[in-house]
Specification:
This protein is an alpha/beta fold. The chain has eight helices and 26 strands.
Length: about 375
Amino acid sequence: MRGTTADEDGNVTMEEEAVLGEMLAMAQATRRAGGVVIVQVKRLARRETLPPKQVKIPGILVDFVVVVPDQPQTYATPYDPSYAGELRVPLSEIRPLPFGPRKVIVRRAALELYPGAVCNLGAGVSTGLSTIAAEEGLLDDVVLTNEQGIIGGAPLTGRDSGGGQNFAAMIEQPSQFDFYDGGGLDLAFLSFAEVDAHGNVNISRFGDKIIGVGGFINISQNAKCVVFSGTLTAGGLDVTWEDGQTVIRSEGKHRKFVESIEQVCYSAAFARERGQEALYITERAVFRLVDDGLELIEVAPGVDVERDVASQMAFRPRIAANLKLMAPSLFQAGPLGIRDDIMARGRQFRSARVAQWYAERSSPR
């Protein structure tokens, strides 16, 4: 494992780290199992010079310390003080996504936000939602989190994933999962690799490749609403938008909506049992989970339902009677300008919740 500074007794602090992760829990588990704990740090300090409250891994759990003076902060960044929470940055410094399918997808996902919503951003395409929230001036109105322990601000994307900027708190990963497991999430924004006709999702196993699920199950099955994101097909997909119309230059070789998935990581049946809402957002179509599987509820401008959606799936979804067009602004390069609409939605939610609260308390026991 790793930290920033170790003293001569092996006590480790993490003042420059982008995440706290689960270092203490792993060290305790390793020691309990009779293993060896090796911690990589950036620098050494004299005995009894580290602030005790900053020590995240006590020296009693550490066997060896390896000093790497030029250890990078993340896979992509040598060091950024905002990643360590030392300072806040202007929103203009939060790198926007380039316009393309990924941006279209996370823009549509962002339309599900509402003020005060506590959200998780999973790995993959969904990490980009923080950049959309920054572009649209929504970072202070919602609470974005990631499983590594970031609460608030803008969780990072790409090879910096796991960290964040302008966050309100950085806690240890096990505590973050205690919160998730307790039902603390209003919205979970997650990626998908395969979806079957029932709405089940696979993100972990493909032939002889076992990727693992990480925290996907805890997050997806405990959030009040889950929003899955990904392209409709994969492997050579080339799609663009000309004058607001969808142009598929080359279709992906691999279907992602399949008859049967190799491993169930998200159970649609369990979701329906607990009344969980679920959306599946792609660059050209949006589906929702209904009693008998998936229902197509939106398509992008220029998309032919039969040619561009149904024929690219291994099963036929239900088609909503009031099938809608995805918002035209999703397919333009400039900002969406959705803040006012989302704030208005928040007022509606609050009014509905207050009405429900009074109804529950005024009903006969």
